[in-house]
Amino acid sequence: MASLNPPVCDFGWQAPDFSLQNIDGSMISRDLIMGKNGLLVMFICNHCPYVKAIFPRLVNDVLELKMLGVNTVAIMSNDPADYPEDSFENMQKVAHQMEFSFPYLWDKTQSVAKAYNAVCTPDFFGFNNKAELQYRGRFDESRKDTAPHSTRDLFHAMKQIAETGVGPKEQVASIGCSIKWSNL
């Protein structure tokens, strides 16, 4: 399992649209899920230790962001053939266990991950209400283990975007496991 860092934020880059199946069977698009003050699109999965380490804090931060008018969507793009823990059924289980308050979508063809140039889990894309990229950075300074008293980079960036429409100029790239691309 290789650790990867995504590229830095390309300010103003327009969020590609998508229409993906949520774990409840409904279809969710970018425009449907956009919040009045922004949208957080995050590429996550069930098996990655970097993602597992932040799940409880991520769930709490997303609830706070919702109160600021920022909606969130999680997308799982890994090929579950080699990583059964990332299957659709396991996505449903994890979302239920962790009490996700946001849609958890399956990018079965991996086309959305490619459109976003996502490279790892977690990979965070913070957009303002015009669907312009303003943040592509880390959740916080923790890695595979929870870092006590760590700064809430993602939360504070999204709060700033909600309030001003503009993300922080200084951003630290996320780190995580590579997306597991299909061989087909």
UniProtKB/TrEMBL annotation:
CDD domains: PRX_like1 (cd02969). Pfam families: AhpC-TSA (PF00578). GO terms for molecular function: antioxidant activity; oxidoreductase activity. InterPro entries: AhpC/TSA (IPR000866), PRX-like1 (IPR047262), Thioredoxin-like_sf (IPR036249), Thioredoxin_domain (IPR013766). SUPFAM superfamilies: Thioredoxin-like. Residues 9-144 form the Thioredoxin domain. This is Alkyl hydroperoxide reductase/ Thiol specific antioxidant/ Mal allergen. It comes from Methylotenera versatilis (strain 301). The lineage of its organism: Bacteria, Pseudomonadati, Pseudomonadota, Betaproteobacteria, Nitrosomonadales.
